[in-house]
Amino acid sequence: xxxxxxxxxxxxxxxxxxxxxxxxxxxxxxxxxxxxxxxxxxxxxxxxxxxxxxxxxxxxxxxxxxxxxxxxxxxxxxxxxxxxxxxxxxxxxxxxxxxxxxxxxxxxxxxxxxxxxxxxxxxxxxxxxxxxxxxxxxxxxxxxxxxxxxxxxxxxxxxxxxxxxxxxxxxxxxxxxxxxxxxxxxxxxxxxxxxxxxxxxxxxxxxxxxxxxxxxxxxxxxxxxxxxxxxxxxxxxxxxxxxxxxxxxxxxxxxxxxxxxxxxxxxxxxxxxxxxxxxxxxxxxxxxxxxxxxxxxxxxxxxxxxxxxxxxxxxxxxxxxxxxxxxxxxxxxxxxxxxxxxxxxxxxxxx
Length: 351
Known about the structure:
The chain contains 15 helices and nine strands. With 351 residues, it is of the alpha/beta class. Strands 1, 2, 3, 4, 5, 6, 7, 8 and 9 form a nine-stranded mixed β-sheet that branches. Helix 2 links the parallel strand 1 (28-33) and strand 2 (54-59). Helix 6 (171-184) crosses helix 15 and helix 7 (186-198) packs across helix 15. The longest helix has 17 residues, at 2-18. The model is unreliable at 1-14 and 16-25 (pLDDT under 50).
């Protein structure tokens, strides 16, 4: 990890040189991205073709990006930050790593519940750019859908010994747990977490894809996953993935109450951006219908921008071609609950 971090710092030094006074600053944007999806290359190419602005990109995970921004401070060459979880975006905001911006284009395109609360000056620290549902996958030969069609039922004794889930402290789960806390209140949410932990078929391990495969293999009967992991399996031509897809079914929880939890991938302008105007242009571009459809079809996410629809075949099959009810709480509230959620996980022994 230390070697990787030093390498990232060396790349940052290269970006600093590229963004120095002698360069044409109006024609560059320096991007730190936690999105590692090959299909995003088309986004970057499209932006440069449309604007003439070159993108200098460095890829890392969210934690690496946050650590690097803190280490670089005001010397950072970063202009735009792309992260893949609401809790991480909220943490970056609270750590002062983002520059709140005013953009009518972004404010018109991205619903208020999918972006940060306004800062004191009215600027918005970050914007959601795509959404993914936190869904329940189950063994359709062993589980009745009605037993797992709410998040609350994951903590019900009727599902004891059935559930597979990745680490409770992973940001995807922290975001879900933060949302449940917003809906139920801290006391009921902690009781629910205790119930979920008691219902685990095995200790938390692996990523979301591993949870889906564990259901198909019979290791457990119910799993929690982000929707795009299931969509990848559904769109795969590999025989083993087709076998997995044939054994599992999916439910979008809480359709009769608050709706399914939606997490986001989003972007922000870096606090010390040297190319702020270009950074805003890039975020505005990512909210355009063309870019939003790249998110939808390339990585099986739903568009975040108003009025943009997706024709992704796996997502359409997953929902039966029908709209589903998603929660409408401010996504920033999810981040605000993170300290409480972590403490609750510690108290109930949820690893």
